[in-house]
Amino acid sequence: MNIVGIGIDICKVSRIASILEKPYGKRFISRVLHPCEIKNDLDYDFVASRWAAKEALVKALGYRLLPFTHVRINYNTLGQPIFLFTDTTEKLMSKYNTFLSISHEDQYTVAVVICLSIPSQTPPSI
Amino acid sequence: MWRFLIRKFSTSEMEFKVTEILKRFNTVDSSKITPTATFKEIGLDSLDSVEAIVAMEEILGIELSDEDALKINTIQEAINIFSKNPKN
């Protein structure tokens, strides 16, 4: 597998708090989160981590037109965050393996993504 | 009467409104606002840019698809895309 790209993003939680407290806060949520990530008791850290992870993914891919609402973050059995892709992003991302790490410290959230290309399944010709 | 309320904005009205919304952001350098300027060039980062677009949707009463919202990179693109979408 070849590395396609690496992406990093840092998000100040207070910036997310400021947006969510504005009249268009709900609209921002529905533009940034996957429908499965939207719940009534959303906290600012959660939204900041989703924003940072999806921004880091865009940077790793070098592809700006990725709809964040078609990307969600879940956790595997080891507790590591993983991306899940739906709708239009599913086919695009089937060519890649992604690795995600998220960290929080005080007022900041950081996410790092490594994107690898999946080798072609076609057997080499003899 | 209702037709008046749901009418589309003219291009010059849309340009004025989009510009006014952008000027509300503390990081925006108003002297750099031109139709061809990108959001980044006037001082908005990626988070500001998404906030600016949802603020425009809220204030203009126009809802964009994800696809249209992602196409916006310059002020002129914002004006064009909001102009072609109907008011809610």
UniProtKB/TrEMBL annotation, chain A:
<feature type="domain" description="4'-phosphopantetheinyl transferase">
    <location>
        <begin position="5"/>
        <end position="112"/>
    </location>
</feature>
<dbReference type="GO" id="GO:0006633">
    <property type="term" value="P:fatty acid biosynthetic process"/>
</dbReference>
<protein>
    <recommendedName>
        <fullName>4'-phosphopantetheinyl transferase domain-containing protein</fullName>
    </recommendedName>
</protein>
<keyword id="KW-0808">Transferase</keyword>
<keyword id="KW-0460">Magnesium</keyword>
<keyword id="KW-0276">Fatty acid metabolism</keyword>
<keyword id="KW-0444">Lipid biosynthesis</keyword>
<dbReference type="GO" id="GO:0008897">
    <property type="term" value="F:holo-[acyl-carrier-protein] synthase activity"/>
</dbReference>
<dbReference type="InterPro" id="IPR008278">
    <property type="entry name" value="4-PPantetheinyl_Trfase_dom"/>
</dbReference>
<dbReference type="InterPro" id="IPR002582">
    <property type="entry name" value="ACPS"/>
</dbReference>
<keyword id="KW-0479">Metal-binding</keyword>
<dbReference type="InterPro" id="IPR004568">
    <property type="entry name" value="Ppantetheine-prot_Trfase_dom"/>
</dbReference>
<dbReference type="Pfam" id="PF01648">
    <property type="entry name" value="ACPS"/>
</dbReference>
<keyword id="KW-0275">Fatty acid biosynthesis</keyword>
<keyword id="KW-0443">Lipid metabolism</keyword>
<dbReference type="GO" id="GO:0000287">
    <property type="term" value="F:magnesium ion binding"/>
</dbReference>
<dbReference type="InterPro" id="IPR037143">
    <property type="entry name" value="4-PPantetheinyl_Trfase_dom_sf"/>
</dbReference>
From TrEMBL, chain B:
<dbReference type="GO" id="GO:0000035">
    <property type="term" value="F:acyl binding"/>
</dbReference>
<dbReference type="InterPro" id="IPR006162">
    <property type="entry name" value="Ppantetheine_attach_site"/>
</dbReference>
<keyword id="KW-0596">Phosphopantetheine</keyword>
<dbReference type="GO" id="GO:0000036">
    <property type="term" value="F:acyl carrier activity"/>
</dbReference>
<keyword id="KW-0249">Electron transport</keyword>
<dbReference type="InterPro" id="IPR009081">
    <property type="entry name" value="PP-bd_ACP"/>
</dbReference>
<comment type="function">
    <text>Carrier of the growing fatty acid chain in fatty acid biosynthesis.</text>
</comment>
<keyword id="KW-0813">Transport</keyword>
<dbReference type="InterPro" id="IPR003231">
    <property type="entry name" value="ACP"/>
</dbReference>
<keyword id="KW-0809">Transit peptide</keyword>
<dbReference type="InterPro" id="IPR036736">
    <property type="entry name" value="ACP-like_sf"/>
</dbReference>
<comment type="similarity">
    <text>Belongs to the acyl carrier protein (ACP) family.</text>
</comment>
<keyword id="KW-0276">Fatty acid metabolism</keyword>
<protein>
    <recommendedName>
        <fullName>Acyl carrier protein</fullName>
    </recommendedName>
</protein>
<feature type="domain" description="Carrier">
    <location>
        <begin position="12"/>
        <end position="86"/>
    </location>
</feature>
<dbReference type="Pfam" id="PF00550">
    <property type="entry name" value="PP-binding"/>
</dbReference>
<keyword id="KW-0443">Lipid metabolism</keyword>
<keyword id="KW-0496">Mitochondrion</keyword>
<keyword id="KW-0275">Fatty acid biosynthesis</keyword>
<dbReference type="GO" id="GO:0005739">
    <property type="term" value="C:mitochondrion"/>
</dbReference>
<keyword id="KW-0597">Phosphoprotein</keyword>
<keyword id="KW-0444">Lipid biosynthesis</keyword>
